[in-house]
Amino acid sequence: MQNKHSRNGFSGQLGFVMAAAGSAVGLGNIWRFPYLAAKDGGGVFLIVYLVLVLTFGFTLLTSDIAVGRHTQKSPIEAYETLKPGWGFLGKITFLVPAIIMTYYAVIGGWVLKYVMTYFMGKGHAAASSSYFASFITSPVAPIVYGLIFMIFTSLIVYRGVQNGVEKFSKVCMPILFFMIFAIAIFSLTLKHTENGVTRTGLQGLAVYMIPNFKGMTFGKFLSIALDAMSQLFFSLSVSMGIMVTYGSYVKKDVDLNYSINMIEIFDTIVAFLAGLMIIPSIYVFAGTEGMASGPSLIFVSLPKVFNAMGVAGNIFGAVFFIMVTFAALTSCISVLETLVADCTKLFHSSRKKTTLVLTVIYSAATVIITLGYTIFYFELKLPNGAVGQLLDLADYISNSVLMPITSLLSCVLIGWVVKPKLVIDEMELNGENFKRKSIYSAMVKYIAPVIMVVLFLQSTGFWQWLSKILH
């Protein structure tokens, strides 16, 4: 069943690049990248992130895609095929999208709500500080929006790899890129005067781009590097089985070197443009203080910015949240597609039946996670010091625990067990020259495993615990 499914994969290189880039370009690029850049010294974060994309991110992305195409199997089988006895890694990898899928449609529903708000011309209501909290704690509305998002995602996956995932990505990604680019350029033209002080979009660009080394210490630099590394997981869709799945759909005559380069470039440009459209806008209307809102930046801070724009704010807000919806959909589709690929093999079921069953399961999960802000509300202190609810707990387990473990084990398997030559040979299958093979070998064997251990200890609160013990 799986082999047949794999043969009916992407039609060619363009379809693969668009779908993989669509998976990579998600909410992590739109909301997480800008607030991390604002928090971590603007240009300092950009430089560190770019270096890590070209080394650390490139290594994980290459490994996942090459393993997928080499084995022609979904993650649940790929690692056992690669090396007997390593099937447990496929099971761990399976858990990541299985958990992420429980809450991704919830966030997608939040975005849909804001699309409707701005389409109805109620941007002034969204600018209220209590609007977001009132919405997510209401008994019905967030459930309805979450289910709509879930159903739309399922319909695309139900249609198959070429007719669903690939076709949607080919249409959606150019539109998404154009919208991000247009909003980014528009943000640079903004100007606002308040209390006799005029701030411009170009000044906001300087805040975003120019490295700020003021007060920089080794500890602060390490924190910036860890933020940038954790962002790579969100940004490139690595270590969650997605790129292994997409790699298994790639034909053997496709140039993986070119494809991976294009995915890296596309994803990095979109992340950069996301910062370019958000940070100058926030700066113009709220100064540097407005950029300190962290994850709530999209749903709380930006609506205030749109409201300050006057009549144009409703149009700007509508376009922005439509763009975010596209980004959320392409990522959510890739998560569900990975689960479908795994489950068709696990349960020997057809693609359409598997998609329908998973839709029912994750619709129920969407309702439960949504109710985590009402009847199932609780406050749990996570090991990294944050306090969260059901959604935050699921996000922490998948992104801060399972993904670093998956990456570490994947690097050990490829770097020390099957050896990097297996991936290098796959990259050079059609005679192409894998120009970064020396970097790849060094990263996968020595550097990436160390980085993953440090990141895992940081995300689990080990360093905070050690600091308390030492003091």
TrEMBL record:
Matches recorded under InterPro entries: Na/ntran_symport, SNS_sf, YocR/YhdH-like
Keyword hit for Transit peptide: no
Alphabetical UniProt keywords: Membrane, Transmembrane, Transmembrane helix, Transport
Highest taxon above the source species: Bacteria
UniProt xrefs under Pfam families: SNF (PF00209)
Subcellular localization(s) per the UniProt record: Membrane
Entry keyword annotation includes Transmembrane helix: yes
CDD domains, alphabetized: SLC6sbd_Tyt1-Like
Membrane topology annotation: Multi-pass membrane protein
One GO cellular component, as annotated: membrane
Membrane-spanning intervals of the chain: 12-31, 43-67, 88-112, 132-159, 171-190, 221-244, 265-286, 306-336, 356-376, 396-418, 439-457
Protein name, entry field: Sodium-dependent transporter
Organism: Pseudoramibacter porci
